[in-house]
Design goal:
heterodimer; A: 305 residues; mainly alpha; B: 523 residues; alpha+beta; four-stranded antiparallel sheet; 17 helices; 21 strands; 35% helix; globular
């Protein structure tokens, strides 16, 4: 187990380094941010000075080496706009994003698990048809559009929930549903197909044959075995949720790290975007590791030796 | 009983339980929701203002972004105040000021003014503030306003002399942008704490700042001037335009900024909302690159292109009236130095054709030009560029329209890599000196024009302290720029605000500054 963990962590570090490099390259393709920082009327010398201060006048490879060196010391640079260390800016907003992600995950599970289970059990019935249709709709609906519709219906017309912000639990409902609804579609379909597969297994027939109540068959034998692939999907969906936060936080004016990143992209605040990408990547790596470790709990056959 | 039926029964039961849970949950949420929104506002005067961005800092010396200064500028005040209605610069913390020599401005401070931490406003605070901004290590973007200053000398407790390197006519305007901060407080708490929790002499003081969520201010009971009419002001940051509009419609925000023309139409149908448009400081034009060899070197061609474009059609049809036609000069009437006597080039395609013919262009030998334009930067930018291209085609000019994303456009703009012309817009502080120094003076950052006579006048205007004399000098520059036509003068952008009708006594300013003075809320 310890060896497995060490290998996984080593692997995680390598991936993080790769992410750092990709973030660097992508953002430098986007153009020179100097001109967005100087007012009309700045002299060419002033522009040159600012570029020099930022190190943007050095060859790209040297900028890269300096960047990686600093990154390894935990210094991802200083924001061009905020003039503060970027890691602090991102981490300051990390809990808000995690809170939204947790709410979205809860919405996703509350919607997807019952829908998937009932669809599987009542396969090809009317409920199944409707649920599968809904799942497809959820999967194909753009988050942006869905969010705006929720704001207009529940925020403006009905006034049940605030249209934006993060104050109080009510403010979390609409962004949570927007983000959770988006991932609920795929998850519903996964739960359904996993359960259908399990329900066809010999041990389910055996369980029924020995006279177990159908509820016991469903909850104890079928669902537990279907849980494994579902956990994998949930782990995968968590990274989708963090990505989806980019759009959701922006629409709902939600004060998380993804909104900070969107704003930084618009301002070409390179270091902030880099820090966001790194923090998001590390979060996903950690989540995946946790998911893999959860297999041990869920399936006694799996051990990491 | 067969197992399938049992499974169905279990599932049916599950569905029922689930449906009940969902119904209960929705009902609970709805009840809680209704309870929250029916809180009575009481007699307190409170408003919520939703802007597109949260301040990056509340230190008025660390930003020139107006959205941030709308907040820190309610807490800290500058020496002078620009009144757009009268066009006059009025006293604020400075009771009076005068040029005692060509290069020295003597400023008399208002006496008995206190910062909200109890510190008194003195000449030392002014000196401290100006030197703080000018300190290169502090990297203040407001340093553009203190750059011309050579020294700041305290004469007595309430008098300070500001000496510039050269005579500088625009100094009183610069003083509207320089906020006075409390020296002792900053020395004790440090710059970083001040940027999170500033104190000042202004009509409001900070209650709390939740980053990216809201900044709450409340009236300063000891304010030296007229007592603020509002008890509490909340600035919210809602980046997405449609969400900002939703907050206005839902009654969560009372004033929202940056309404798009599309949304203005739909908001104006809401009986609780009024739309307040105001012509802004951004001037839109087609700039000719006269630093390169091209057909536009011929003044007749430049004038012809000015006659060929139908400015009214662009303003009314493309921008739906949310723009104002320029009067044949780069400045608008909000700027000091605007020449009222000059009128726009009339739309006259025949005149354009004849001028082009004089310059040697006709159906057999058509003029061919490339027009560069950005997209996604200005209101309807691509559409306007297409109309301009179409109108030029109508007088026989072959136009190759190149629409670029803003980033790419900007890179070319600063490299002056446009041959021969580009559609864009510029805004500066509302004084001819700043606009002309950046946009027209030979070799300036965004100038693609060179005229020694104009350069001389720009320098002269900059160094003239007498305001009437300055106005005359810039009036002459406007006349030359009208006739010489280094631009196609188009229109100025209009900023649109959405306001809940319960808000009274507020009108928007051309510079995006939000003045909280005199706002009242009814009902």
């Amino acid at each position: 187990m310890a060896r497995y963990l060490a290998a996984r962590l080593g692997h995680g570090v390598l991936v993080t380094l790769a992410v750092l490099s990709v973030a660097f390259v992508l953002l430098h393709l986007a153009g020179d941010p100097t001109y967005l920082l100087v007012p009309v009327g700045a002299s060419p010398e002033e522009i040159q000075n600012i570029r020099h201060q930022l190190g943007l006048d050095q060859p790209l490879w040297r900028q890269y080496v300096n960047y990686m060196k600093r990154a390894l010391r935990g210094d991802l640079g200083t924001s061009l706009r905020y003039n503060q260390p970027v890691l602090g800016l991102v981490l300051e907003r990390f809990p808000a994003t995690m809170k939204l992600t947790a709410v979205a995950l809860a919405v996703m599970l509350i919607v997807a698990v019952p829908l998937g289970v009932v669809s599987a059990v009542k396969r090809n019935g009317a409920f199944d048809q409707i649920a599968t249709g809904l799942a497809l709709l959820g999967q194909s609906m753009p988050t942006f559009w869905f969010g705006i519709v929720l704001i207009l219906v529940f925020g403006v017309s009905l006034r049940w929930f605030p249209t934006s912000g993060s104050e109080g639990w009510r403010a979390l409902v609409l962004p949570g549903v927007t983000l959770g609804g988006y991932t609920a579609g795929l998850t519903t379909r996964m739960v359904r197909s996993c359960l259908i597969e399990v329900l066809g297994q010999d041990y389910i027939r055996t369980a029924r044959a020995k006279g177990l109540a159908e509820r016991m068959v469903l909850y104890k034998h079928a669902l537990r075995n279907a849980a494994l692939p579902v956990v994998t999907i949930v782990g995968y969906q968590l990274s989708t949720l963090i990505g989806g936060a980019l759009v959701t936080e922006q629409i709902f004016g939600y004060p998380g790290m993804a909104r900070l990143a969107v704003q930084a992209i618009n301002n070409r605040d390179f270091p902030v975007v880099q820090a966001f990408v790194v923090v998001a990547a590390v979060t996903v790596l950690v989540i995946n590791l946790v998911v893999d470790l959860m297999y041990v709990l869920l399936d006694p056959r799996i051990t990491y030796e | 009983m067969n197992t399938r039926d049992t499974a169905r029964k279990a599932a049916t039961k599950a569905v029922k339980v689930l449906a009940m849970m969902v119904a209960a949950l929705l009902a609970a949420l709805a009840v809680a929701g209704c309870g929250g929104s029916s809180v009575s506002k009481g007699p307190r005067q409170e408003i919520v203002i939703a802007q597109g961005t949260d301040p990056q800092t509340l230190d008025p010396h660390l930003t020139t972004v107006q959205q941030a200064l709308n907040i820190s500028g309610a807490i800290c005040e500058p020496l002078t105040y620009l009144n757009y209605e009268s066009g006059e610069i009025e006293p604020l913390l400075a009771e009076s000021w005068k040029a005692i020599t060509d290069t020295t401005w003597q400023v008399k401070l208002r006496e008995g003014v206190k910062f909200t931490n109890g510190e008194e406003l003195t000449a030392d605070a002014v000196k401290f503030s100006l030197e703080r901004i000018a300190n290169p290590e502090f990297k203040s973007p407001a340093a553009i306003y203190t750059r011309p200053i050579k020294s700041v000398d305290v004469v007595d407790k309430y008098t300070v002399n500001i000496t510039t390197k050269e005579p500088l006519g625009v100094m009183p305007l610069y003083m509207t942008r320089v906020y006075i901060v409390p020296p002792k407080y900053i020395q004790e708490k440090g710059d970083e704490n001040f940027s999170k929790a500033p104190v000042g002499t202004g009509p409001f003081k900070l209650v709390e700042w939740q980053k990216d969520e809201k900044v709450v201010l409340e009236a300063n009971p000891e304010y030296w001037g007229d007592k603020p009419t509002l008890d509490r002001v909340t600035f919210r940051a809602i980046p997405e335009t449609s969400t900002r509009m939703a907050a206005l419609k839902a009654g969560e925000a009372d004033i929202v900024t940056q309404v798009s023309t599309d949304e203005a139409e739909s908001l104006s149908k809401d009986e609780n909302i009024k739309i307040l448009p105001v012509p802004g400081l951004r001037v839109m034009f087609v700039q000719f690159n006269l630093t390169q060899d091209n057909a536009l070197k011929d003044r007749r061609v430049r004038q012809a292109l000015n006659y060929a474009v139908d400015k009214d059609a662009i303003v009314n049809d493309i921008l739906r009236g949310y723009a104002r036609k320029c009067e044949g000069q780069p400045l608008t009437k909000e700027y000091f130095g605007f020449n009222e006597e000059i009128k726009a080039y009339p739309y006259d395609p025949e005149k354009a054709k004849s001028l082009l013919a004089e310059a040697g262009y006709g159906p057999d030998n058509p003029l061919a030009l490339t027009l560069y334009a950005p997209q996604g930067r200005y209101n309807q930018d691509k559409e306007v560029a297409q109309v301009i291209a179409g109108q030029l085609e109508a007088v026989g000019v072959k136009v190759d329209l190149q629409v670029l994303d803003w980033g790419l456009f900007l890179n070319r703009l600063v490299a002056k890599d446009f041959n021969p012309m580009a559609f864009w817009g510029a805004a500066t502080e509302p004084d001819a000196d700043l606009w002309l120094s950046g946009m027209v003076y030979s070799g300036a950052a965004y100038s693609m024009y060179s005229n020694p006579a104009v350069d001389e006048l720009i320098l002269k205007g900059s160094k003239t302290v007498d305001q009437a004399e300055r106005a005359k000098i810039y009036g002459e520059v406007m006349r030359i720029l009208h006739d010489d036509a280094p631009y196609i003068y188009l229109y100025q952008q209009v900023d649109i605000y959405g306001v809940n009708k319960r808000v009274e006594g507020w009108s928007p300013r051309p510079d995006e500054q939000i003045d909280l003075k005199g706002i009242t809320v009814k009902g």
